[in-house]
Amino acid sequence: MAMELDHDCPDCGGEQTFYRAASTTMHLGEKVKWHCPNCDYGFVQISDNGTVVDSSVDA
The DUF7838 domain covers which part of the protein (predicted)? Predict the structure, then answer.
């Protein structure tokens, strides 16, 4: 269970180290909320069996 994640932050511009704000297990898999410590930007990832859905990715 990682507590930090390097990820692009659209508000700060560039890669930042995000911190795990919360997590829970649901029927879809593990839901993790990540937050940038430099601004208010956050996103959610839901992962199950190697498949990851990332709310920060544009469709």
Answer: 1-56
Domains of the chain: 4-52 (2.20.25)
> CA 2: distance to chain centroid?
11
| CA gap 39, 18 in Å, rounded | 10
- pLDDT tens per residue across span 12-58: 999 999 999 999 998 888 999 999 999 989 999 998 877 777 778 76
Give, in order, the Cα–Cα distances in Å from 24 to each of 1, 9, 16, 28, 31: 12, 23, 23, 11, 5
Contact 44, 26 (CB under 8 A): no
